[in-house]
Amino acid sequence: MQMIKSAIFDVDGTLLDSMKIWDDAGERYLSSVGKTAENGLSEKLCDMSLTEGAEYMKKQYALSFSTDEIVSGVLKIIEDFYFYEVGLKNNAKEILQFLESNNIKMIIATSSDKTHIKKAFERLGILKYFTDIVTCSQIGKGKTSPDIYLACADELGTAPSETLVFEDAVFAAETAHKAGFKTVGVYDESSRNDKNRIKAVCDYYADSFEKAADWGHHLLSLYKINAKNKEEKMMYTALTIAGSDSSGGAGIQADIKTMTANHVYAMSAITALTAQNTTGVTDIMEVTPKFLAEQLDSIFTDIYPDAVKTGMVSSSELIETIADKLTEYHAKNIVVDPVMVATSGARLISEDAISTLKSKLLPLATVITPNIPEAEVLSEMQIKTDADMEKAAEIICDTLGCAVLLKGGHQLNDANDLLYQKGKEPVWFEGKRIDNPNTHGTGCTLSSAIASNLAKGRDLETSVKYAKNYISGALAAMLDLGKGSGPMDHAFAIEGEY
Predict the structure, then answer these.
(1) Which of 112, 171, 408, 433 has the fewest CB atoms lying closer than 10 Å?
(2) What is the pLDDT of residues 179-194, one digit of tens each?
(3) Looking at the structure, do residues 243 and 376 belong to the same domain, yes or no?
(4) Are residues 199 and 192 in contact, defined by beta-carbon separation less than 8 angstroms?
């Protein structure tokens, strides 16, 4: 198994809280010579070279100094800032300590002056973590070129695919990502307007370095490769958070079978044990919120899931625990099967739990997969036609901020499902009519198959398409077990000797 072996760190805005000096340098210089800067000076200077900025200040403020003297004065202010003033980003040392404890080699790639960085790092006690400081001036190219990252990787002796790059600037992250590096976006106030862009570019995004050890394990397992016949193949991971079905047709058991059949490594956090079979449920025993939280901590701090699926959770406390942990660990590709209402129309969870589900968990989802009765609860409207389905999906999407796969059937249509995503045209997926009464666990299976495909990097529409094809195949296998509505054949497409 090939793992992350090294890390390349940007400095300004990533490790050091230093971007403010580039905004304030002109104002600080003017103050040092007895002048008061105009409002908006930093915005005027930001697009100028240092020499152009000096010339502007000389003319605007009638300075008696030469342009070169002004440049020297500004550079001295910047130097003093790094030497005596600049601080670390909050908890930055924590991630460095974590990576070092896991034998990750680290190096600096910066556009700033090497002497400035070295002095700052010595004062702040972090120079020891890095093998070298490589600057753009050394390389002869800025970070719109991958040369500095490739030079750092070469010095570390690791391939781009084995190397994390930490950056706060979207253009730099894009450059590293295109060069084959695993990228970590780091929030900085100076680049707040680019937050969504950098999140889209990077493999991982850190709002801060707080609790670095909690999410650091994910960084070390972003790239996992199993060699088979000399070909490199990704092993993706998915987590199901749901109840156990002792009959094996739905719940955790169905989810694990589905994920395995879709070539994803499956993990589970169990919310409840059930005594059930194909004829019904006879008893339920919920886990405590504390035990559920411990399960999730164990998973996220070791094998970080590439996607998460949640199923039926009946209590508000457990829903809150799930939502809190998914938020804490920055979980991605979250598929929520909002199990609230049976096909018959009977409520499966309390009104209080529904309220918590709507306010805490559903807004975190990448996509939710309600049936018609559930969509009626979420949209607060009756659904009688295909047009009603589109309207309800739009309301749910606008209200909760997530995509909606509204499942058809229920005497409305031939199991045609509707995918509604914000800003996109609705997409209908025509169901294949399969005359099989054994449909136990279809909802669990569909949502798990979607999560599996999202884990593999497919977009949502493609993931739904693959998931629909998979469930059609599982139904078409015509497995017939039990005295009631039996399970599907989740393993219908598994091939091999064993």
Answers:
(1) 433
(2) 989 899 999 888 788 8
(3) yes
(4) no
